[in-house]
Amino acid sequence: MKNTRGTISEIKQQLQNDGLTHEDIKVLRQDERTGVQKLLQQYDQKLEKERQLKEQYEQMKVYEYQLKSKGYYSVAGIDEVGRGPLAGPVVAASVILDPRDESLIGINDSKKISELKRNQFYETILKCARAVGIGIVDSQTIDEINIYEASKKAMKLAIDDMEVNADYYLLDAMKLEGLQAPQQSLIKGDQKSVSIAAGSIVAKVTRDRLMVEAGKEFPSFEFNRNMGYGTANHLKALEQHGPTPYHRMSFNPVSLYKI
C-alpha cells in the first residue's frame, strides 16, 4: 500500500500529539506496515484507558451530583492520613470541588497512585478547588488523646481552615460530632467520591513533605523514605538511638524506649 502519512517516526509523533483527524486514522488503519499497526494498537489502548478513567471519574462524582440535586452546592470531602505510623503527625484535608471540573480525571485514593501523580493532582487541587483546608495534629497530642480522637481533631481543624463554609460533608469512614451541616460517612470513600479522594491526596502530600523535613533533622530514621512507618531500618534506628520528638510514645514498640 502507498505510504500516505510519512515515516513511522512521523506517524508516532502525530499520534502522540493528537495531530491526526478521524479520517487520517481511518487511512492509517489500511496501512500494511507492521510498525504502523503496532502504533495504532498502542493508540487504541491509550484511548481505552482514557475512556475508562473518564468513566471512573464520572462514577466518583455521583455523590456530589446527587447532593447538588438536593440543593447542596458546597460539598466538602474529608480524609486523613497517618494513623498507623510510629512517628509524625496525623494530617487531614477538607476539599470543596466544582463537580463540573474535568481537571482531575484519573484521581483516586492517594495510596493507589504514584508519588508523581499525587504531586500533580495536589497542585491542580490547590489551583482549581473552591476551598482547601488542612489540619495537623502532632505526635504529642496523639499520645495525649489517642490516635482515633487525634484523627477526628485533624479533620475538624481542616474544616475550620477552609475559607468557604461547606453545606454538606462527605467523610471517609468517619463521623464527626458538632458539625454545622449534614454529613455522610462512606466506607472506602476515597475510592467512591472525588471530593474525598482530593482530600486524601492533599493530606498525604502535606504529611509526606513534613516527614521529608523531619528526615533531614534525623537522617538515621529515614523518615523521608518510610514516612514514619515501622520499616526494618526505622526499627533498627529506634533501637540504636531511641525515639525522636516526632515519635508517638504511646505506640508499640516506641513505648518500650520510654525514658
UniProtKB/TrEMBL annotation:
Manganese or magnesium. Binds 1 divalent metal ion per monomer in the absence of substrate. May bind a second metal ion after substrate binding. GO terms for biological process: DNA replication, removal of RNA primer; mismatch repair. It holds the Pfam family RNase_HII. GO terms for molecular function: manganese ion binding; RNA binding; RNA-DNA hybrid ribonuclease activity. It catalyses: Endonucleolytic cleavage to 5'-phosphomonoester. The keyword GTP-binding does not apply. It comes from the Bacteria. The keyword Cytoplasm applies. It is found in: Cytoplasm. It is an enzyme of class 3 (hydrolase). GO terms for cellular component: cytoplasm; ribonuclease H2 complex. Its cofactor is Mg(2+); Mn(2+). Residues 73-259 form the RNase H type-2 domain. Keywords: Cytoplasm, Endonuclease, Hydrolase, Manganese, Metal-binding, Nuclease. Its EC number is 3.1.26.4. A divalent metal cation binds at residues 79-80, 172. InterPro entries: RNase_HII, RNase_HII/HIII, RNase_HII/HIII_dom, RNaseH-like_sf, RNaseH_sf. Belongs to the RNase HII family. Endonuclease that specifically degrades the RNA of RNA-DNA hybrids. This is Ribonuclease HII. The lineage of its organism: Bacteria, Bacillati, Bacillota, Bacilli, Bacillales. The gene is rnhB.
